[in-house]
Amino acid sequence: MSSSGSVSTSSSSESTKSDRSKDRQIGGEGTSSGVVTSGMSMEVVREVREDPLEELEESNWPAKGGYGWAAADVRDQSSLFRWSRLLNSWLNCTPVISKGVSGDIVSLERVSAIDRVCHGQEGATEKFFYMYMCHFSQLHVRLPLDDFTMGVLRALNVAPTQLHLNSWAYLQAFRILCQSLYLEPTPYAFLYFYDTTPRRPATFFSLISRPNISRLDAFSQSFKHFKDGYFKVVVKEGGKAYFLNADGSPKFPLSWTNNPSRYKDMGMDELSVGDKEVVETLLKFVDKLPTKGLVRSGKKNLALFQKLRKEMAAKAKAAGKANVPNLQESVVEVHVHGGTKRKVELPPRPGKGKGVKKIRAALLGTLAGRAQLVGRRGRKLG
């Protein structure tokens, strides 16, 4: 366990103290003063919430050395979540663990005043990694990470916080798109669409869309205000199977690395048969698909989407797979920044018989995208 204060996924709230005594001196935990209003004396109590002394004292600890290979802005950026009460408050309103998974697989902990997001495992008695609050509040990542996501991090040789959030959005959108087409998302099929250029000193690692090949646009032109929102995810005994291999080694880099992988103009001959199937299917789309909105860039893509779904379902049935997807069900959830989730679909129009429902596949959608859909079709979202 980290020496800093910990917050479990079912963390208790910080106690709040105030002294309502009129004799309390200024500078104490609470202060009061007399105010005369219309001849009546009223007591005004100001409540001051203090942080634990051990959290305040950490600011005097010596800085950790040995990280000159990391960019200065990364080494200098402390976290808001060095205050346990802030982490508690945020956890109370943001889901972090996937539904149906025990919250005991990890412990979510604050970081000390001298911890930095690029720091490693030195001195730790348990495996841990850092995550940004934006991973969960904006990109809807949930723990434990799935095999595809961990595979991408492993192939890139970067820790979760080392991969820039715009690149995380590509990863999330690719996974959702593949699942909606009944394709198995694979790390190298994903990386086929991107180049990487590691920088020195090491800073946030970005995926660069390959011109005329990438099928997803950018989540944000400038992803701001995320660098001070990191906290510690400590792997508990019940979570080792999710994050660690049988020999105890991590399934992805837990800490920042000084040697991320370089990819440039990956060729089809470098892909496995399964990877090629994914890539060739996605290359059939005509336009770029909006990562931050609905996957609907014109009628050509919509018709192709329906056709591809039928083909993939037919393949699954022919292969004797027991779990053949039901094409009459919506396949993708729209994630909105307010934290709500809605499935988006339109039923078949009258006279179309048993035609497949027109699915509006949504990748990390926005309220604006939902409003646009309603305005165009005049239908309510399901």
TrEMBL record:
Basic and acidic residues bias (residue ranges): 16-26
The UniProt annotation puts the region (Disordered) at: 1-41
Per UniProt, the ranges with Low complexity bias are 1-15, 32-41
Q: Which domain of life is it from?
A: Eukaryota
**What PANTHER family is this protein classified in?**
MYOSIN HEAVY CHAIN-LIKE PROTEIN, OS06G0165300 PROTEIN
Supply the name of the protein: Transposase
Q: What is the lineage of its organism?
A: Eukaryota, Viridiplantae, Streptophyta, Embryophyta, Tracheophyta
